[in-house]
């Protein structure tokens, strides 16, 4: 970012250091990065049946929204493009229609606020905050740092047997989130792994930063261990799909080498050294049997999907309303559906966590917001995916955006794949908003890396500066 020295007539020139410090402090991307890092703050024991959960990261995200609103009112923030406004506006309208026509509008109001926060306000503010390469790398760096913190805690939980219960043993890595948010650590670690991989790939070539490349690849390699011992099949599948798209987009030949290297590393770690071999092997084998011989958790998920479809069939156009699934679940679910999921760790002991969502974001939208909502979300997701595929840079030379385009593509693919068997909820929900904002920066703002030009409407022509004295001195009539 170029820093210009400014002065008023008759006043001395301001020091460049003060200008640089002021520009750094006023960057809204710092609040976005703080939102990511505050996800790691332990939330303590929480009532999973409560209508509203407010975390430290949620507070930071609301601060980002407030900051952006003030800057827009003062004319200091870039205006979103028409495409971005149309896509985000469609989601708001669909949620509003579903809330007004809900079976319980009062109960759906909190769901409406949460949907607007997660899919509209925070992504739009993150998009607004990412004004140059520094901002983008700052957010990606915060994702990597948060993943390293959670990964270190999770690895220690597995090695010292102080994690959540898995097959009767306290070995499941859950980070600082506890057994009640079993997917949170694997989500944070997956985001950090993909961000580190994208930053490392962007530094290839003669002009790349070799120490940064090695550091990012080392971080990605380390994060594979806590991801493995999270025993989260969903995160494994989503991370594998996202990493494949990332490496293929960066360099197809590199994808083959990376696949062989990953297979060799996994064989050494699991089969040779024996790190997590029993649990990981058992969990991997269960992925192939989810259709032929599903375990109880998979069977319950299938029943929840069927329940969501039955709710949608009753109100196909506008859905039952946000937060309505948990009210209608028992009246539409098959009798074999479990009452809850067993969770246990050293802090909370044994608890049964109620199944309050279909564990599929697309079916959740369909059942609660109907076809109207499904069309709005499909338009947003497809626009982001197509735009990221189009604008994410590949090749053997460092990216102009420092890997932000590749990272945005990979993170978005992770979210879209994870939505097939998961939905929003828990402490890491706000990270989904940040990822959507990163993807919007790449997809909707275009490949402009120099600043905010792609986010701004076309500027009006400016009057020419009066250069009459200069013209006269050179012998040319003004």
Automatic annotation (TrEMBL):
Membrane topology listed for this record: Multi-pass membrane protein
Highest taxon of the lineage: Bacteria
Chain segments annotated as coiled-coil in the UniProt record: none
Compositional bias segments (type: Low complexity): 453-478
Keyword annotations of the record: Ligase, Membrane, Transmembrane, Transmembrane helix
Region (Disordered), start-end ranges: 448-478
Subcellular location: Membrane
Record GO terms (molecular function): ligase activity
Residue span(s) of domain O-antigen ligase-related: 219-377
Residues annotated as transmembrane: 85-103, 109-130, 137-159, 179-200, 212-229, 259-276, 371-392, 404-422
Transmembrane helix listed as a keyword: yes
Annotated protein name in UniProt: O-antigen ligase family protein
Protein species of origin: Kitasatospora cystarginea
């Amino acid at each position: 970012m170029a820093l210009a020295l400014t002065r008023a007539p008759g006043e001395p020139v301001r020091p460049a250091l003060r200008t640089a410090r002021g520009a750094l402090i006023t960057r809204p991307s710092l609040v976005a990065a703080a939102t990511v890092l505050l996800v790691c703050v332990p939330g303590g024991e929480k009532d999973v049946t409560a209508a509203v959960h407010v975390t430290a990261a949620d507070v930071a995200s609301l601060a980002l929204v407030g900051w952006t609103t003030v800057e827009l009112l003062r004319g200091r923030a870039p205006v979103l493009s028409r495409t971005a406004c149309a896509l985000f506006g469609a989601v708001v309208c669909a949620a509003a229609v579903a809330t007004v026509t809900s079976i319980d509008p009062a109960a759906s109001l909190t769901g409406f606020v949460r949907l607007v926060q997660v899919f509209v306000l925070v992504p739009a503010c993150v998009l607004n905050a990412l004004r140059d390469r520094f901002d983008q790398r700052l957010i990606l760096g915060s994702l990597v740092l948060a993943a390293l913190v959670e990964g270190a805690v999770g690895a220690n939980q597995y090695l010292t047997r102080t994690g959540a219960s898995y097959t009767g043993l306290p070995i499941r890595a859950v980070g600082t989130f506890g057994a009640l948010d079993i997917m949170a650590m694997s989500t944070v670690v997956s985001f950090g792994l993909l961000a580190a991989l994208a930053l490392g790939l962007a530094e290839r070539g003669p002009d790349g930063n070799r120490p940064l490349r090695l550091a990012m690849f080392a971080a990605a390699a380390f994060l594979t261990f806590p991801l493995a011992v999270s025993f989260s099949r969903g995160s494994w599948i989503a991370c594998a799909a996202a990493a494949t798209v990332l490496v293929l987009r960066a360099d197809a030949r590199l994808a083959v080498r990376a696949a062989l290297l990953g297979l060799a590393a996994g064989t050494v770690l699991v089969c040779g050294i024996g790190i997590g071999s029993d649990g990981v092997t058992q969990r991997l084998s269960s992925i192939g049997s989810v259709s032929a011989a599903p375990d109880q958790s998979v069977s319950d998920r299938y029943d929840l999907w069927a329940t969501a479809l039955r709710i949608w069939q009753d109100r196909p156009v506008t859905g039952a309303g946000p937060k309505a699934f948990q009210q209608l679940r028992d009246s539409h679910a098959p009798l074999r559906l479990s009452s809850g999921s067993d969770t246990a760790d050293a802090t909370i002991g044994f608890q049964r966590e109620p199944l309050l969502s279909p564990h599929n974001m697309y079916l959740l939208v369909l059942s609660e917001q109907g076809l109207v909502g499904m069309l709005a979300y499909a338009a947003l997701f497809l626009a982001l995916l197509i735009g990221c595929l189009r604008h994410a840079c590949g090749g053997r030379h460092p990216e102009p955006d420092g890997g932000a385009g590749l990272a945005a593509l990979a993170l978005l693919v992770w979210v879209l794949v994870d939505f097939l068997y998961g939905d929003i909820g828990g402490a890491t929900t706000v990270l989904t908003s940040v990822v959507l904002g990163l993807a919007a920066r790449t997809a909707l703002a275009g490949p402009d890396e120099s600043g905010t030009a792609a986010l701004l409407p076309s500027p009006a022509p400016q009057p020419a500066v009066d250069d009459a004295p200069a013209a006269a001195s050179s012998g040319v009539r003004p």
